[in-house]
Amino acid sequence: MIPTSRTAKTELLLRQTRIHFPRLEEAKVKITPIEKGGSDRKFYRVRCSPDQTIILVKYNLEREENRHYVEIAEFLAAHKISAPKIYFHDPAEGLIWIEDLGKTDLWSHRGESWMVRRAFYESALGEIVKLHCLSEEVRRTIQKNLPAEFDAALYRWEQNYFFENCLGRVFGVEANELSELAALPSLGQIAEELAQRPRVLVHRDFQSQNIIIRNGQAHLIDFQGMRPGLAEYDLASLLFDPYVTFSHDECEELLADYEEKRAAAGKSVTPDSREIFRRCGLQRLMQALGAYGFLGLVKGNKAFLDYIPAAMRSLRGLVSEIPELEKLSVALDRVS
């Protein structure tokens, strides 16, 4: 059992690290916590020597998806999709020692020129295309260990998560208006239409802070939510990312690059892919805004509230394109 005090917890994690890596010199091993996002997992950087580090992940045993992280990482490695290597897994304690890919994610490059950023984003798209293009036979080998696939119920959950935790909790919209907006027929139709489309494997949280750049190459992290869904959902996660901004032309360049990579892999996108991308953008932004409200106001991580304005601007733009969502568009304009 992990003690509650930070010092005692760190000492125990160090002891467990030395048990599994006995060649490490005791005096030189240091462990420091890494503050990361809204995850319920705890991350630590273990410094074994001045030039060697590994990452230790402590996960919640009660969350099903956390237990499958190692299997997914090994699946990605088997299919040459760049991700951290697994060094050791202690499932009884919920501990994983993994490769340290460094601290430089796509988000870290947000202030650089588009020429620099574009190369990194294209590398990330190259990795996600490999995932999206895996055959159905290959997908079946991992699917039993994945969270619930994207279906109409999950899309509706994302919508309701937004109404409850963003419009309700953050902006104070009253319950009766929330119920009326959530019941708009077009929202249900979007959920049903997306759910009827053929699924591929998706990362589920494919955004700038979950893509590490090492030696110019993108690596996927935080992939424990991987599941069957729509490729356009991953694209929407990347290109409607509230943590960074893109011009219209930059977004178009990356969409075109993704489409070219899909065509080269023999799995061209469908003619209506851009429209599906926008619908998935609506879903993804609702999910993200719901998460920001929940993490910011319920979990007390106020930093997430800072990203609400950018996400709301993007959501307003997408909602305004759908005439049947005029009531929602008016509500979004009013509160933001």
Q: Can you give me a brief rundown of this structure?
A:
The protein is α+β, with helices and mostly antiparallel strands. The chain contains 13 helices and nine strands. The longest helix has 26 residues.
Mean pLDDT: 92
Strand order of the largest sheet: 1-2-3-5-4
| Helix-strand topology string | HEEEHHEEHHHHHEEEEHHHHH
| Overall outline | globular
Strand tally is: 9
Biggest sheet: strands, sense, closure?
A: 5 strands, antiparallel
- Helix share of residues? 40-55%
Backbone CA Rg:
21 Å
Task: Output the number of helix runs.
Answer: 13
Helix-strand category: alpha+beta
Unreliable stretches covering 5 or more consecutive residues: none
Give the CA-CA distance, first to last residue. Answer: 46 Å
Strand content: 5-15%
Q: Would you kindly provide a written description of the structure presented here, covering whatever features stand out?
A:
This protein is α+β, with helices and mostly antiparallel strands. The chain contains 13 helices and nine strands. It has helices at residues 6-20, 64-67, 69-78, 114-132, 136-143, 152-168, 175-182, 185-195, 231-239, 248-264, 273-298, 308-319, 326-335, and strands at residues 30-34, 42-49, 52-58, 86-90, 95-99, 200-202, 211-214, 217-220, 227-229. The strands form three sheets. A five-stranded antiparallel β-sheet has the order 1-2-3-5-4, with helices on both faces. It has a two-stranded antiparallel sheet with strand order 6-9. The protein has a two-stranded antiparallel sheet with strand order 7-8.
